[in-house]
Structure formats: C-alpha cells, structure tokens
Amino acid sequence: MTRLVKLIALTLSLTTGAVSSVYAAQKVQNNEKAINQIQTSVEQQQFDDSTLEKFTVAMYAVQDVAKEFEVKLQQEQSTEKQQQLQANAREAMVDEIKQAGLEVKTYTTIAQLVRQDEALRQRVMNIVNDQDNS
Length: 134
Description:
The protein has helices spanning 2-23, 28-44, 49-75, 79-99, 104-116, 118-133. It is mainly α and 134 residues long. It contains six helices and no strands.
C-alpha cells in the first residue's frame, strides 16, 4: 500500500503542473469555476474498473516520463533549458494520460480521491496487483 500511495502522490504532484498548463490560457476566475464544476461532477460519479485500469496504466506511464526527465533535468545547467524540459515533461505526461484513455482532469481527480478514500485506494491496489500478476 505504501508503494501505491507514494506513486500516486508523485504522479499527482507531477500532473498538477500539467493540469495548470492545460488551463493556463483561460481567465483565472472562469478557470476556477470550471475546474470546481468539473471536479465536483467527476467526484460524484463512481469510477468503474475499466476507468481505474486506465488510471493505473496512466499512473505508471507518468512515472516513467517523470523518471526520464528527472535525469535530463539533473544533467542540465541552463535554467532556460530546464524550463523547456519541464514543459516537455508535462506535455509528455498529458499525452500518456490521454493515450491511456483518460482526460487529465479525470486522472487528477482519481489520484486525489485515491489519497483520501480508503475504499477507492483498495480498488486501485487490487487492480495494480492483478496487473502485476498478469
């Protein structure tokens, strides 16, 4: 369980920047209202196993992207190039989430809820264990 919680915390912190960049072009006030409405809507729905499976696939893919770019960031001295690498990493993470079949908003909401909801966390852990045993 600890491994999963750490992994979710990592992916949540990494995708928070990705979500921020996705919404950066919108006005701040409208953005906050839209995010709150979407998050409330997503939180109210029950996530089926298929969605949670997509989440776990995306979670591992985001973790792989984070590891790849972390090495590159540590090797880079230029602040400008580091910022570009971070932008590239966020873009790659968003792509991975979408390739897994999820919207970034849904992915982020599930990650937040898994940290708070023991039953949901257990369901995700069961899916992870099933994937590991396959």
